[in-house]
Structures are given as C-alpha cells and as structure tokens.
Amino acid sequence: MVRGAYRNDPSPMHIVSGPYGREKVHYEAPPAIQVPDKMAKLIDWYNQTSPLGGDKAIPGIARAGIAHLWFEVIHPFDDGNGRVGRAVADHALSQSLGYPTTACLATAIEADKKSYYLQLEKASRGSLDVNVWLDYFADTIIKAQEIAREEVDFVLAKTRFYEAYGNQLNDRQARMVSRVFAEGRKGFEGGITTKKYEAITKCPNRTASRDLSDLVAKGIIIPLPGGGRTTRYELATVEPAQSGLMRK
C-alpha cells in the first residue's frame, strides 16, 4: 500500500459492511487498472460543474451527492475511501455555499450505516438514474446539519455551565461533571446516581450522598422524576442571557 496512490492490486475490491467473518458484499469496485481513467473523468466532471467558474454548474447538493457516489463506486484507494468520499462531498457543499460547511456528514451516515450501504448498493448496481440516491443524500445532509446545530448548542451549554458553576465544584464533583459532559450531546444514559458517582469518583457511599446533596442545594443538578428507590439526577442548564436555570 502506497500512501496517496491509487490501488494497484489486481484482486477484486469488494465494498463490504458488517463484523469480521460475517461481512456483506454490497458491490464490487472497478478493477484497479481502470481506476486512473475513471478518476480522471470524475475530476474533469467535478471541475466542469464547479460553481467557481465551471461551464456546467449544477445545484450544490446534487453535485455533492453525485461526486460522493461516483467516488465511492470507483473506490480508488486501498483504504480511507469513506473518509475521502465524505471530504469530497463536504468540499462540493462548501464551494456551493461560499464558505466551509459545518454539516456533520460522517456522524449522520454513521447513525444509520445500514441505510447508507443499501443506497450505495442500489445506486451502483442499478441504472444511471441517481434520483433515489440524491433523495437519500439530501435527507442525510439535513440530518447532518441538525447534528451540527445540536453539537454547537451542546458546546455553548457546556461553556455556560462551567462559567456559572465551575468554581463551586470540589474535585470529586468536577470529575463527575466532566464525565457527564464526555458523553456528548446525547447526555448521560440513565442520569446521575449515587452508585455511578461512587464509581466515577472512587469515593464511599456517604461521601457520594453528601456531594450530591450539596449539588442539589446549589441548583447544579436536578432530580429526575420516576426514579423509584434510586434517585437520578441531571445537570442543570444555564439558559443564555439569563441568570436562572431551566431543565431541558
């Protein structure tokens, strides 16, 4: 394998998904000997359809979707085709927007890889009609934009939280909060409990209960309803331009 070079192994290149030993073959890429010519045609088309001076410009999402599909069907490299293919789509979208895209395309695809490979398989094995693929790709771009917005909201919420409460946390509490935020925008599954607090901070039950009670008294964590015998908590959310707190 040569970094940055097209694949040259004469063996068939199968595009697969699934765990090792139970892979599913979705399609077979063109033989390695055809890759340089096919990539030259893709690059030529990409430049001709560019909104930055191309003489055959097409809408940005359509261009990004076709370019990504075309690249993935060729699968020109031994490894990294998915990452590069997404970068191609991001580049096409950025050119059409006139600024870098913030859409989380990789995250959106990863959230439902089964559908992604199914659509790739259909588009690569069917006719030259890519309308179904483009419908799927456009929906995925919308999801990617929604994920990007959620990620930005999460980072801003995290920043506001630390600005409001960072200096009120002891070392154990700070460790627990850091662990909760490490879960990302989807949050800490099942909420914060005394048992989880003990496991994260390596402290005895009595200390964990005292720390959690202190956080509740300060309004830093909020009890969740329906906890039964085990009380569950979530971090309070500091709303922008407000000093009060509000649960999500």
Structure description:
A hairpin with a 6-residue loop joins strand 5 and strand 6 (245-246). The chain is elongated, with a radius of gyration of 24 Å. Helices cover 54% and strands 8% of the residues. Helix 4 (105-111) packs across helix 6 (131-165). It is built from nine helices and six strands. The longest helix is centred in the middle third of the chain and has 35 residues, at 131-165. The chain is mostly helical and 248 residues long. The model is unreliable at 243-248 (pLDDT under 50). The protein has two domains: 14-148, Fic-like fold (Orthogonal Bundle); 169-246, Winged helix-like DNA-binding domain superfamily/Winged helix DNA-binding domain (Arc Repressor Mutant, subunit A). The chain has helices spanning 35-48, 60-74, 81-97, 105-111, 113-125, 131-165, 171-182, 194-201, 205-217, and strands spanning 14-17, 24-28, 221-223, 233-235, 237-238, 245-246. The strands form three sheets. It has a two-stranded antiparallel ribbon with strand order 1-2.
